[in-house]
From TrEMBL:
Domain Tyr recombinase: 228-405
Cited Pfam families: Phage_int_SAM_5, Phage_integrase
One example GO MF annotation: DNA binding
Organism of derivation: Tenacibaculum todarodis
Entry keyword set: DNA recombination, DNA-binding
Highest taxon above the source species: Bacteria
DNA-binding listed as a keyword: yes
Gene Ontology biological-process annotations: DNA integration; DNA recombination
Domain Phage integrase SAM-like: start-end pairs: 108-204
The protein's name: Integrase
InterPro entries recorded: DNA_brk_join_enz, Integrase-like_cat_sf, Integrase_catalytic, Integrase_recombinase_N, SAM-like_dom
């Protein structure tokens, strides 16, 4: 548990008061509070000024208020996953004192913090207020990387410092120190540029090189399960109840096309009947869109075996549930003999990097394979027009949908050619 203590530096009539923040037995930071006192008026036993005159009484109140303020800032930073450093402590104290240094929005970290806060009031594509918590979390991750980069370089960057030199150094840091993949680095660069353009709109000075500051895309390798592979998994019997649960959720996922955050929230109360058909109706956590998913026969078979209920989840905690699902999926696919080599990306435990290559397919399987398999398997079949599939996956445009399944616009021509060939 974090501890805050005030200490004096030196013994004089104007001794500086420091705040020491101890995060653990081995990690602590010390910064000036901006206050000073005659060391004779300081109580070592309480760690506060003696209450021997009105000035010291007021100083004691100020220090206690500072202590509470830093504790609150610490809780917020921990919740958002931000690094707590010596620089963080300095800025927190400056914020409390109302000094302009920490509040100046021409600093990259300060502006990014405000940018994230404003996202909570931003109008989204649905005309509603705010963005999803997942979006806030992603932007906070960017902020965290910038803070780490500042600590690494021992510099405090202004928004106008984001130039081509910054870009090269940031790429090197994310690659060598953070061990991030090229695709992730490319996305982070785009985010930093977006933040800086937002700052420019708000009259913050930016680099003349910002227009040339670009991210990049890396072609993704899409791993999916074919209908034949899904059938092999269906036929495989498992004595372990958790593997059997994972199998059932996998099959449901491959026929409903939802992200794991929505898939494993499904329950009996979401089933609605319209005319003679049954649907799963839910509001997606990420997009806030309402989707109406017809219940496929394969899904109905599982629900019927459970008296109309969905399978149990692995944990009540969403993150733990997702992690366990990923773990069991690999075992399910391994037992279903998906041991042949397939192209994909796998993390090398020694280098801590994602590597492209041929690996046993079961090792490449994760929870996201459900949604992508649904979209890929049903795409371009005459019976399933793309707009119908998009209505279930909730992709906003066909371009996004095609990119998601790794198809190019030329595939439309091939689709039409196949239809005409069947009509001859």
């Amino acid at each position: 548990m974090a501890r805050i203590k005030f200490i004096l530096q030196g013994k004089s009539s104007n001794s500086q008061i420091y705040l020491r923040l101890s995060l653990s037995k081995y990690v602590s930071f010390k910064r000036k509070t901006g206050y000073s006192i005659d060391y004779k008026d300081w109580s070592k036993s309480t760690g506060f000024p003696k209450s021997n005159d009105p000035f010291n009484k007021n100083l004691k109140v100020d220090l206690k208020n500072l202590e509470v303020f830093v504790e609150k800032e610490l809780n917020v930073s921990n919740t958002n996953g931000m690094d707590v450093t010596s620089l963080w402590l300095k800025d927190s104290i400056a914020n409390f004192l109302g000094k302009s240094e920490a509040k100046e929005l021409d600093y990259l970290v300060d502006y990014t913090k405000q940018y994230i806060e404003r996202l909570r009031n931003k109008s989204n594509n649905n005309g509603q207020k705010g963005v999803s918590e997942a979006t806030i979390k992603k932007r906070t991750t960017i902020l965290n990387k910038i803070v780490k980069f500042q600590n690494h370089t021992k510099r405090k960057f202004k928004v106008k410092d984001v130039d081509l030199k910054f870009r090269e150094e940031f790429i090197e840091f994310l690659d060598s120190e953070e061990k991030l993949s090229e695709g992730t680095i490319g996305k982070y660069l785009k985010e930093v540029k977006t933040i800086c353009f937002d700052a420019q709109k708000n009259n913050i000075d930016v680099s003349s090189q910002l227009i040339h500051f670009k991210g990049f895309n890396v072609d993704s390798i899409h791993v999916t399960l074919s209908f034949d592979e899904i059938k092999e998994i269906q036929k495989t019997k498992f004595e372990d109840k958790y593997l059997e649960l994972a199998k059932k959720w996998l099959i449901i996922g491959c026929y409903t096309g939802q992200r794991v955050s929505d898939l494993m929230r499904m329950n009996k109360s979401m089933i609605e009947k319209h005319r003679e058909y049954e649907f799963i109706v839910l509001t997606q956590k990420k997009t806030k869109k309402i989707v109406q998913i017809p219940i496929h026969n394969e899904v109905k078979s599982i629900l019927d075996s459970l008296d109309g209920n969905f399978p149990d989840v692995f944990s009540e905690n969403e993150s733990s549930n997702s992690a366990l699902f990923n773990k069991y999926l690999k075992l399910v696919c391994k037992d279903a003999k998906l041991t042949y080599l397939a192209e994909g990306k796998l993390r090398n435990e020694e280098t801590e990097r994602l590597e492209i290559g041929k690996f046993p397919k079961y090792k490449l399987v994760s929870s996201h394979i459900c949604r992508r398999s649904f979209a890929t398997n049903f795409y371009a079949q005459r019976r399933y027009p793309t707009p119908l599939l998009m209505n279930i996956t909730a992709h906003s445009t066909e371009k996004m949908f095609l990119k998601y399944i790794g198809k190019k616009p030329i595939d439309y021509g091939l689709q039409l050619a196949k239809i005409w060939a069947e009509d001859i």
